[in-house]
């Protein structure tokens, strides 16, 4: 958790810089594509050091994408709806984490190693990255 938290911190520092250079949608795409590639590369060996690196990278890219998404919502939603929309979005985001943990608990074997789960998560990140190519890139 500490290594993932360090990734969150680096995302808070790095995201404004990355968004200034890439734009919001490209940064989300880069975060998702990075996770899609590194999730299986670091996760499939199921070794402690690559798994710690994966925790850091996933902390960085998931928080980087969330910070950027929060900014997009806050800057594009009309003031009269912003609080309600942001609250709904935040609840859905947190529900996704809880849901993912529940699904993982049901899917994981007793030793906690599941190549199909690692590949599935990687494919979800790849789908998000591909989907982000449909948004404008100013």
From TrEMBL:
<feature type="transmembrane region" description="Helical">
    <location>
        <begin position="86"/>
        <end position="108"/>
    </location>
</feature>
<dbReference type="InterPro" id="IPR036259">
    <property type="entry name" value="MFS_trans_sf"/>
</dbReference>
<keyword id="KW-1133">Transmembrane helix</keyword>
<feature type="transmembrane region" description="Helical">
    <location>
        <begin position="44"/>
        <end position="65"/>
    </location>
</feature>
<protein>
    <submittedName>
        <fullName>Putative MFS-type transporter</fullName>
    </submittedName>
</protein>
<keyword id="KW-1003">Cell membrane</keyword>
<feature type="transmembrane region" description="Helical">
    <location>
        <begin position="114"/>
        <end position="133"/>
    </location>
</feature>
<keyword id="KW-0812">Transmembrane</keyword>
<keyword id="KW-0472">Membrane</keyword>
<dbReference type="GO" id="GO:0005886">
    <property type="term" value="C:plasma membrane"/>
</dbReference>
